[in-house]
Please model this.
Amino acid sequence: MGVIDVHNLSKSYGKVLALDRVSFSVGRGELFGLIGPDGAGKTTLFRLLTTLINPDDGCAEVDGCDIIKDYLSIRKRVGYMPARFSLYPDLSVEENLQFFAALFGVTVEESYDLIAPIYKQIEPFCTRRAGKLSGGMKQKLALSCALIHRPSVLFLDEPTTGVDAVSRNEFWDMLAALKERGITILVSTPYMDEASRCDRIALCSEGRILGIDTPTGIVRGFDKPLYGISAKNMFALLERARSEEGVEDCYPFGEKHHLVAGEGFDEERFKAALADVECLEIVSTEPTIEDMFIKLMRR
Amino acid sequence: MSDVVISVRDLTKRFGDFTAVDRISFDVHRGEIFGFLGANGAGKTTAMRMLCGLSYPTSGSGTVAGYDVRTESEQIKRHIGYMSQRFSLYNDLTVWENIRLFAGIYGLSKTQTEERATELLDRLNFSSERNTLVCSLPLGWKQKLSFAISTIHRPEVVFLDEPTGGVDPVTRRQFWEMIYEAADGGTTIFVTTHYMDEAEYCSRVSIMVDGEVRALDTPARLKQQFAAESMDEVFRTLARGAQRGE
Model:
């Protein structure tokens, strides 16, 4: 039994099937990531698990409570940070915090030890209106508000979208610290490079889960040889590589292109065939979560 | 025609006593993919607005596609392409209506519009979707269409403001292939992104910190300069020293 248990959950909006029989389980104290692009169904899943909407089919439990029958108990136990900034822009930083504390019948003092590592960073601006905060500061205030009632489960919907690489890194450090305090965290992100910060991840696409495992487990599932290739003209190289025998896939990947070798691929023959390509380099390389995601999507 | 498509010298924008963009200088050459990076609040958007003729510089000078950012902003708007994740196409118009709308805004004639729309739809294999509402297209298609429309008037330079946010890895790569292709054909690409792997696709990358351009070179040379494994590391090293937030 997990803290979050999801069984065959489905949800449609009119003709659009947003979530298609999704099942997974998250253990206590786990940091679980939903990795996927827009339209994967991540937000729908959050809205279902936080009891804001009801499923068409399937069932789920959060901290032992059924998402339909026990929705009131769930709301007391979970913290939710929606993708869109949803604090009151006209209230000050501290007024927002006090407001959320009052809603849950607690005081800021009672929970101060839990939020302190995050809240202290914005406390110097406690009288500033929330609408006037920078993106990174808004994010910290929203997280503080979501934690004010000491929830057992935290739902964070794309907390790092549109945030620069440095602030994103800081945010994941804060999550790691919360996990140490025993809070179960379900977090979604479109950035594949953040997957490694999670204990386990689910790769999501178009309402389905393509795979669930630890980040290393996901990568281990990539069972084909992978190469990094580069040349002077990278665009022309793509076309050339794709037309060679045994090349199952070839796509841009940072400074190199990644080449997935299928049956019949031979490195020496490949080099010989592309002997006229200026500055050709080919090296064996380790797959990443993103390579696996691409592979699962192409299936 | 000159090989330099964007040229700025000491370009500065102040809002009251706050210097959003602080004397930035650089040249962008024809057919280059120029990555414009910076932490949130570094001044990227303000700089980009000046280059697009949407904001008047406080001091300094610059030309975009041969036009002066101080005196010819209307000409600039006609001669550049622009696309962002937030603003691209009208969902409740059809593919064809979107093309006609933007072609009209960019000042193409009726015949030109018809010609280029047909060519564009052919190239994208979209001819059967001419009368489809944009809202019912998959995201990847919308992105491609949006990029194609932003270049329908054959601008010398196209500005892409975080064009791939929230897009799946396969579509993101298809999109970058379009960018490569356009650059290969001589269109200059000026692009901002939060994906550091995309920074590696650029011919050159500039990184803004606190309103200044702190680094500008090819990804390979930047990594060398900062003794870093990846552009992500280069970016973090620079942005960590930032004094100001957004």
Observations:
- The mean pLDDT of chain B is 91.
- The domain at 4-240 of chain B is CATH 3.40.50.300 (Rossmann fold).
